[in-house]
Structure formats: structure tokens, C-alpha cells
Amino acid sequence: MIVDRREDLLRSEDRGWVDLRSLMDAVSPQEMLEPGLTAERWSVKDLLFHLGAWWAKAFVMLERVRVGTYDGKGEAATVDELNERFLEEGRRLDLATVKAELYSARNQALLGFGALPEVTPEAEEWFRESGPEHYEEHLDDLRVWVGTLTSAG
User: Fold this and answer.
1) Contacts within 8 Å (CB) and 24+ apart, 135-142
2) Are the beta carbons of 106 and 113 closer than 8 angstroms?
3) Residues 138/47, Cβ–Cβ less than 8 Å
4) 115, 12 contact by CB (below 8 A)
């Protein structure tokens, strides 16, 4: 059953990734830099870095689960504080670097998830919350943004 659960999670992540990529492909590089995706005035680039940063964090946690050093303790920073830090970090980078960081972090996390001898509840939570659930959390904003750009163009 563990293998089935892992496969279900990977399929769910892949569906979300395909949706995300489809929407990304509908936005020009210039449009990715424009603020307004969210109420906080994020750009698509900001969102991509945000997703990549959480994938990178998930990879570290999945590795800790794999080697037996995961203790359930996160950083002292809250999720909102981490999100703010990620936003600041991402805004200093160009779009190509942000995309590369996202793809790399996602691939590392997928490999890390696949390398787990078993999918523990902690590993599942990190994977779900950084991947399929995280995509779903942001896809509506991206769909609206793409629709706005399409109707304006």
C-alpha cells in the first residue's frame, strides 16, 4: 500500500504541475514580471520563486526523514515570515534564475520523495503541502491573472 500512496501523491503532484506549466506558458516573460497576481501585488515570477523555495525546504525535510534526523521542528520563523523572506530573495533574481531554481528544487524533492524507504506521515505532509496542495492554493490566482491578460490582449 505504501507504493500505491506514493504513486497517488506523485500523480497528484504531476497533475498540478501540468496545470501550473500550462498557465505559465500562457504568460509572456514580460507579463511574469508585472505585479498584481495577488492582493499582495505578487508577480508570476514571485509566485514561481515562492513555489521553488518551498520545494527546496521540502527536499531538506524529506532528506531528514530519509536519514532519520527529522525531529518535527521547523524554523523559528513562521510561515508568513518565511514567505516574506522568500519574496525578498526572489525579487533580487532574474526570471531565468527563478525558473531554474523552481525546476531544480522540484526535481530534487521528487527524487528525494522517491528515495524514501517508506512514505511516513511527515514525508507525505511535506510533499503534499509543498506540491499538489500548494499548487492548488495558487492556481486560481494564476488562472484569473491569465484570463485578465488574455481579455486585455
Assistant:
1) 135/13, 135/16, 135/17, 135/19, 135/20, 135/51, 136/16, 138/47, 138/50, 138/51, 139/16, 139/19, 139/20, 139/23, 141/37, 141/38, 141/47, 142/20, 142/23, 142/24, 142/37, 142/44, 142/47
2) no
3) yes
4) no
Look at the pTM and tell me if it is higher than 0.85. yes
- The residue extents of the domains of the chain are 2-148
Q: pLDDT tens across 54-100, in order?
A: 999 999 999 999 999 998 876 677 889 999 999 999 999 999 999 99
Q: Please tell me the class of the 2-148 domain.
A: mainly alpha
Rounded to whole angstroms, how far apart are CA atoms 2 and 91? 39
